[in-house]
Hints:
binds serine, single chain, nine-stranded mixed beta sheet, 34 strands
Amino acid sequence: MKSTQLRSMFFNFFTEQGHALVPSSSLIPADDPTLLFTNAGMNQFKDVFLGKEKRSYPRAVSIQRCIRAGGKHNDLDNVGFTARHLTFFEMMGNFSFGDYFKESAITYAWEFLTKTIELERDKIFVSVFEKDQESYDIWRRIIGISPERIIRLGAKDNFWQMGDTGPCGPCTELYYDRGASWGCQQSSCAPGCDCGRFLEIWNLVFMQYNRQKDGTDLLLAQTGVDTGMGLERLCSVVQNAPSVYETDLFLPIIHRIEDLTGHHYITAEPQIKAAFRVLADHIRSSTCAIADGCTPAADGRGYVLRKIIRRAALFAQKLSFEPFFPHLVDGAIETLGPVYQEIPERRQTIITILEQETAQFSRNLMRGTNLLERYFAEHGIAAPVSGTMAFTLYDTYGFPLELMQVLAHEQGTSIDQKGFEKEMDRQRNVSKHHQEAIQLAVNANVATEFTGYDSVEEETTISALYSLEGTPLSSVKAHESCWVVTVKSPFYVAGGGQINDEGWIIKNDCMMPLEDLKKQGSAIACKVTPVVALTCGDLVTLRVNRVQRLHTMNNHTATHLLQSALVKVFGTEVRQSGSLVSPDYLRFDFSCSQQATEAHIDAVENIVNEKIRENIPLTIRWMTLQSARDEGVIAFFGEKYNPERVRVVTVPGFSAELCGGTHVRATGDIGIFKIIEVTALSAGNRRIVAVTGQKALELFQRLGHITKHLSIAFKVPESDIVPVIEKQRVQLKETQHELALSRKQVLQQLMPQWAQDAQIIRDIPYNIIVLEKLSSEELRGAVELLAAHRAGLWIIISTDPQSAHISYVINLAHQYTHRASLKELLEKIKVLGMRGNCKNNMIQGGASALPEGLQPIIEDWLKQQ
Ligand code: SER
């Protein structure tokens, strides 16, 4: 049975049981800082389980693309070495939101496996949570499984949680027995054993709790069911494949690797086979992550992607010297492309990003190796390589620990592993700390009506107050900073790239500026330091800073125009990867494999400004996510959308985006749009910064003043400024070169006199020469000339009439260095404030003033030689 058949049988089975078919959400979790990547089918339903969001259906079915390569569920290091672990997989799942519970969930799973796809009943084992007697009884009495095939396990195996916090509950798992020949042959081998005989295929989670930060579990208002079955594992069972990698989901990639490297998978040595598997898995995860808008980065999910690509690049070296990993993309597209159309659409971007990232990695490996060699040269090999050094190599250069160990071993030393772990822990703590934000203990019925789309001022009542630590208060004294929640609010809370509104809370004519804003559940909370006491129930006025809001609106609508203009110029491969809409400027990050030339940027500016001049009135509509998708409306991966009700902002005939932001009435309000910066952020990822309206006008005025000033200073018409400056720059360089030559000639003429004027102490001729305005290069050149003229101790000092600072150089002829140490001399002249570096037979340095008393120090020192 092919994987495509399994997909449709699964959907058919559950839709026939009244489940709504919900498409997979993006791998980039919507608005959930607790997750790096979507790691389970239930992620997109998290708020539904928590009772924060309602759907029009009480039960759903989906096949969700997932990545487990970081955070709570992380399989990265196992991939390649087992028959079943993957970083990317597709999770088949059925869900109940306050609808059916344990009995139906278990019955559906049993029927699908044994009747629909006809797995042998006797090969299925189950595990239940040790405290969950109800599930045990259902398996035993209703399904009729014999007791020796029901195993009770503890929380480690049979209590599922999405992350450190959030929905969780006991679970029951279905295992497929692949037969004794697969296992460890121990008499204790049973479901839960890691040997691979009992393949865990389906997890049925009974959502009952919401885990808090302190580890306590609060009961959810309604129970739910969340199930998850890996499509790849199920395929390996129905296709009777020895591992997931021998299923039709992976074979096209495996064959591609064979074609590109000449290795043969089936007959390969275990190490080579592991490399095949790593590459086959990692190409799927990196392809899908990039298709969903993720790009390699130094932190967060971008860093996880980077680690996956680097790991792949290392394993690829075991198979070929050629950097072939990016060429596996077409293998991944062969099976995933027909299911997820965004992947083939972004093929070129994915390949470009993989090529650039792998090339960068091999440069880093080279740099890392050099760094390590230098470290050995400087520190010797007596002690192990320090944890800090190992961590820098690992973190900054992506240098794998194992490779460092090999290099250290070659030198006869090792790596301080404990120190390395300590640095790793430190970094983990730092990133954990970043994620933790103070939560206000907002009561579920405290909600704020947002009125800011239509008004910028609201008279309303304080409905709740909280301390900065998040505890509810009935009143606060003056000057005590706090969070204020009101019944209505015109304040826009940062979202969709648009930053928080600025504004004031006004009570009894006292204006208290907003210090921060946030959404907590359905409440909008404003941070203020009140100048008068505040009490729940107080009547207050909330006033938005109109100027800031207007400029922000200009930039927000301009961002939409920019996105559509980019698609017009570069094609549909353009994907937004981030944005910032502030009153002063807008910033738009997007991925695109093509270069952005000046002509491209001009074209983008022209299109946006044309749309501004057309003064098109915007339309705002609310609809379901599905209808918006059907209309081809652009959505941004990082945003959380309510599938039942999304807001669509349209510039008719040109742009339509899902967006909760504030916008101008008609495009003409924006005035003018000007791009001020285009940069490359990382492989295939670009950033545009632009200004609009008043800010654009200010920019033109500034540029106008500069041009005028230059035109007067260079006495040329404005149109000639660039070639004239360019010409003068070349002339200046030539003149400087000629000047340097003449100065050198002058020095050469003075040289014999300086050599002749030398004093001699203990056979060593010496002279101190003071000159003006020599560059450090000239100083070195001069002292070398003098040394070539006569062996001795030569000190040349360069002063600068404009500042007291001096620079100097000291040279001692090689023939004296065995008896006189320049390092010792450097120590002595330090008391005069002369800093410097001693290298070979030369000291070069500076001081903040011309040193007095240098001559006696030099002479004393010479006398001691
Ligand atoms: N959320 C559970 C899991 O990921 C079941 O879907 O295993």
